[in-house]
Amino acid sequence: MAPASSRRPGHSSTSTARTSVTADEKGGAGPIGAARKIIHGWALLGGCVLLAVVAMNMISVIGGVVWKPFPGDFEMTEVGVAIAAFSFLPYCQLTYSNVTADIFTSRASPRTIAFLTAIASIVALLFSLLLCWRMFDGMLDQKEYGYTTAILQFPHWMAFIPFLISLALLAIAALITFGENAAVLIGNKSDD
């Protein structure tokens, strides 16, 4: 897998050492810049959730040896890891950090790569909208039925809220990456 900088639209794999940074790469201004900052913050929040899960598991293991284990630690691990994983999806889309098969595109032109990446952005957008729709219905069902975890009695439907936020941010990230690649395709962004 190539570094993210070589897969960005308008950037060839040989131009990773650049002298100028665009406003878009600094975070940008306007709604796209705000969306980028929110997506970055959401991923950082997901990382904090993952660190909290690790800390909770450490406390539970130490507590099991010394005192008493943390009750329901596996339930909170399941929820926390799922929330963290979903929170990373928009960031991976936005930074072109998804897994790619570079063997097929290693000799392709930047426009060809931009075309393929634009298609991937559309797929990510459709995927996020489909999942958002189905998970919203699932959340309503979980709430209506009153499902909870066995030990902590944590309502299942509450875990769906960060999933839905992540999927909405994934849709926004897919729109941003589609726009970047469309700019390369129509020639508004030059290859460095």
TrEMBL record:
The keyword Cell membrane applies. The chain crosses the membrane at residues 42-67, 79-101, 113-136, 156-179. Residues 1-28 are annotated as: Disordered. The keyword GTP-binding does not apply. Its main location: membrane. Belongs to the TRAP transporter small permease family. This is TRAP transporter small permease protein. It comes from Flavimaribacter sediminis.
